Amino acid sequence: MSRGLAATTPEEYLAAAPADQALALRTVLGRLLDALPGAQTVISYGIIVVRVDGRAFVGLSAARTHCSLHLMSTVAAASLAEVLPEGRLVGATVHFSADAPLGPATVRTIVEARRHVLD
């Protein structure tokens, strides 16, 4: 379950997260934004949400024992089930540890799977 961090902006969320998780989330968020030029970040449903063309694309959150990348699509999750190079797929969420943020290739794989659902 995601931490109930009191935040109205992504920066506030990251400032409220434990330092190791904040660093991992910043790393993955930077990789997402590199792969999604023009994307915006907001707080929605208590987590960081990356929006593309005004639509929720993925979300990021800190949980008690891990970090999460919320795919916001069961179809995208199903397409990643056998090909996700790192992280652990749980439902439509990719769990990763603070000491092992998702790498650039994994983030690109996730972005492509999620884009495919939007097309």
Automatic annotation (TrEMBL):
<protein>
    <submittedName>
        <fullName>DUF1801 domain-containing protein</fullName>
    </submittedName>
</protein>
